[in-house]
Amino acid sequence: MDKAKVKLNGTHLTLEDIEAVAVRGVKAGLARDAETRITKSRRCIEGAVGKGRPIYGVNTGFGALSNVIIDESQTEELQANLIRSHCTGVGNPFSEPEVRAMLLLRANTFALGNSGVRLGLVNHLLNCLNSGVHPVIPEKGSVGASGDLAPAAHLTAALLGEGEAFYQGKRMKAADALRRAGLKPVSLSAKEGLAMINGTQAMTASGALSLLRAERLAKTADIAGAATLDALRGTLTAFDPAIQAARPHPGQMEVSKNFFRLMKGSEITVSHKDCPRVQDAYSLRCIPQVHGAVRDVLRYVRNVLTIEANSATDNPLVFPEEGSVESGGNFHGEPVAFALDFLGIAASELGSISERRIEKLLNPVFSQLPPFLTDKGGLHSGLMMIQVSAAALASENKLLASPASVDSIPTSSDKEDHVSMGATSSRKAKEILTNVTNILAMEMLASTQGLYFLKPLEPGEGIKRFYEVVRDRVPPILQDRCYHDDILKIYGLIESGRILEEVCRAIGALC
How many Cα atoms occupy the beta-carbon half-sphere of 236 within 13 Å? Predict the structure, then answer.
């Protein structure tokens, strides 16, 4: 990779590369060897077409209509009709970063040289990406089996100058967006329409960005949990490395290390060293086991998404060295669907245990702090409703975490008779992460208030920096106010990465 571009060769794209292009606008281009493979693959398709033998999606109809042979003179019309007929998505559009990730992933799978598309089509994809032409793609309408057909069709339609696109923050006709960017609509040749829509790029793009968000959120959850542990005068005994070594799951050991570093130098911990409390509640004592298990799931999801991002997932596939074009099922989204369902399940647990810690902070039986973290109880309700809202989100996550991948519904006259529902898995995971971020923001609002009541005692070094970052935006609660505004501010600090960055700057990178 040079300074200006992520170079695509089909095999080495990382999730961090995806985020760099999708979120930060880094330019992407093809590696030289990828251009060679794409050209060889296209020659293979053109040779097969010239021989006149039936090849699915090249000179036949699609799905249940695959037994219909199409004349060579109608090839371009066949491909364009495929795109138009598959633009059936509904709902809110994918975010622009998600669309950018889709464009990138589609180009990367073509870089493998198994799709038979022209080099010009791949360059057009990348030109749209690098010029900021982002097709309007509805989120709903994919069952995730023959790929993300409807989302990918909307993406492709914009490249043809049909449908809509965002350009420089404005939604407009795709033809106008292309024109303003100095680009011309592309036309599709044999197989190219099918190659564009057969694949898992929508679920993988959304899932990759969610996974990266979840990884940061897992570290942020450690900060939130450590702040609560200090505010509740909890013990670090359960975080002892010897306990973790007796059950050596990697994530569990990482979380334990983080807590010792976050709470190093805590005056609060020293102040209750000889207290009679033997054990803390599970939501505190079992943080290494719960937060750690989440981290281990995220490792699995990262591996699946990395493989998928560097795979040929359309059909049929072209193998230039053998001179063959073979039909298969790499478009089926089951691996990604499983992984993203697991991501949603794991992330929901970060919110579930956080909600229980909020309850402990507000309940004087556990906290030894003023009820609902107000010293004017009665006239003021304090943070009573914070726990109620957190409970609502945690319960909603229980429904959202129900796996979509266990469902299947036959399509296309029962020829496509088993589907993955991976697009639904990705959408649910994204919503769960938003809910969890809000729950952690609520916990942080409560924990900083708890720490405020323990002054002049200071928390651990990492938690002290966390407290300062939050206090820069959210003052101590001296009387009731609109806590919605406080939650939004802390949510922003989490999403922007500022809390994690500042804490890591103070104590070093967290595991």
Answer: 24
